[in-house]
Amino acid sequence: MNPEDARRLSPAEQHERRRQVIRAYKRKLNKRQIARDVGLSYSATCKIIDRYNNGGMAALAPGKRGRGAGDKRALTVEQEATIRQTICDKRPEQLKMEFALWSRAAVGELIERECQVTLHLRSVGKYLARWGFTPQKPIKRAYEQSPEAVRTWLDDTYPAIAERAKSEGAEIHWGDETALVNTDVRGRSYAPQGKTPVAMAVGGTRQKLSMLASVTNQGKARWMIIDGAFNHEKLIEFFQALVADTERKVFLILDNLGVHHCKPVKQWLAEHSDQMEVFYLPSYDRRKSPHGTARNSIPRNASMPISNTSSAAKCQRAPKLNFEPPPRNTWP
Question: Containing H/E element for 317?
């Protein structure tokens, strides 16, 4: 039998050949005869026998091939830790790099600048995958947002509001505005590959409806549809309907939209302070509140075309929704 390169065999096949060598060796056959019968080279046969004599059959068990984990890498363990920490703590623009977000090219440039090591783009991707980094859509956050103000609101302001609501028997509402247009296409539609489905527009004009809504911590949603521009008059109309539809005093939490702070709104609130009080979120904080969850789900789930409606739409009560209370663990 012609000698076969044992390196081309699978680990299981190599192990079986070694066992054949040892069985022949125990029968007192000559090493050259064993090599010819098994199909291995003489040198490979001698190495197998030597391993058996030194460690027994356990020494012939197949081991893991290739280099060990972490061997021969371009970056040291310390360098990898430094790069990982930098990516987590900084944005490229903060490091005066010509990138807005972290990409493989940006990470490669960072490695070259900090470690004087040039890596191929694919190698950078492998490092990122090994570190557990994945490409993700970044969260939008305004430059003007103050993390300290948000933390203070969560740790101090909101707990005080909740305590007051409990002691005064008031109900906390989270309010906001949103809009629906008949030209917006939502969802997906099956179609042959390469043939994009077409959604037919309703009518020839663009129609838009605004909506004011509030959601309590228990998930009770109330809304008012507005046909036309949203202004302080519509906001006061919503306040009036909300107070009329609620049996308890209302603590309404709003963002810092300009109309929320206008003089007519403040005057109405001052005259009805026994029925409603308004509290405001920190400036430029657009993170999800319970109402934001409902607001985002409305356009996503709207599949029927929007028809014209009367501006005299009244405040209505929706079925109970499944929301979690906002404090600390849920909002923002």
Answer: strand 316-317
